[in-house]
Amino acid sequence: MDHFLYRNGSLHAEDVPVSEIAAAVGTPFYCYSSATLERHFRLFQEALAPLPNLVCFAVKSNSNQAVLRLLGSLGAGMDVVSGGEYLRAKAAGVPGDRIVFSGVGKTRAEMRQALAGGVRQFNVESEPELVALSEVAAGMGLVAPIAVRVNPDVDARTHEKIATGKSENKFGIPIARARQVYAQAAGLPGIEVVGIDVHIGSQLTELDPFRQAFAKVEELTRALRQDGHDIRRLDLGGGLGIPYERSNSAPPLPIEYGRMIQETLGHLDCEIEIEPGRLISGNAGILVSEVIYVKDGEGRDFLIIDAAMNDLMRPSLYGAHHDIIPVLEAAPGTARRPLDVVGPVCETGDTFARQRDLPEGLSPGDLVAFRSAGAYGAVMASEYNTRPLVPEVLVSGDQFAVIRPRPTFDEIINRDTIPPWL
Ligand code: LLP
User: Fold this and answer.
1) How many domains are contained in the chain?
2) Type and span of the H or E element at 280
3) What ipTM does this complex have?
4) Residue with CA at minimum distance from ligand 1 atom 9
């Protein structure tokens, strides 16, 4: 459920008409709903309530300061994957002991920064990273808390570009080698083992791959404890999918996911960490765009809008589906018409949808909204074709605020510098 609903035929973000925001901010823009962000975060908290837990929001899915501030104020931890994301979490007021640092390529500088600022744990993905982290921490007179990310070799049955838990993926340490790596970790002066980490992929639409991975983590927890390690935290990653197509069957609910976690791991007396991104921010955001032209083509017609692949990359990158709806609801009984929805960028890949069934009568100046655009939307945008990064707006009840303004062309152009010989 989200808070983008039609009222009197006009799409609202909570209590604010989307057309009112468009008039104030211009298009295209991302619009997030505070109530939806909060609701989805709380669903995870409730799902894990029977166990000690920390829900760490995956900052990569939406890293706007206002979004992080909102979730942080509700008690969320943060899962970060770069020094930049670490600084964003800190700047939003999240304390270091609620920040988990993931990622396959942490640099020594990033390790130093997180150790100095405080960090809950590093999720270590390779032996060389483990050695580097120990050296950095010991050099600072500190000990780094770690979980080793294990790769359970489970098929997440999701898009190949976002599956991470198969042995051929670059992520984690093969679970078969885990005991060896934990033994190595225990012998390093700058390392303290606190737990195990696993993340098998994103946009998972069934529980079974999670269950298989967690069963392997359960087995490994017992083995590592036998080896003398103090495994007290299990970080289960993110990955629970959302219904992008409202017509399709819905993925499992957080409460079902939570129940499965209790069944598979609840008896181990561990603190459970999870790192959901998409399920918290995805359906909490829409991308609003204006129709520029309706063009009759040969065999197919095009809806040319002012958002493009650089603003929302998911369709061109993954062939992802986003529901597209008119901001002014079509009257009941309005005929429908298949259209290719495209942006102004000079690439055929700049196509959001092919032959999408849309209400007849959309015309220049009309607004459309892409649903489920709050995760991996604004964060993946670029300025390709010198199109300014799309502004972001946050709604709360009947108020809205611009939480990242659209840059001016001067700002964009003046970021470049001319070398002295030109
Ligand atoms: N934890 C780790 C270690 C991750 O790598 C990810 C996502 C998450 C948590 C959060 O996963 P989520 O709950 O959001 O599924 N750009 C792609 C998604 C990439 C996901 C990468 N890792 C997309 O637009 O679908």
Assistant:
1) 2
2) helix 278-281
3) 0.99
4) 238
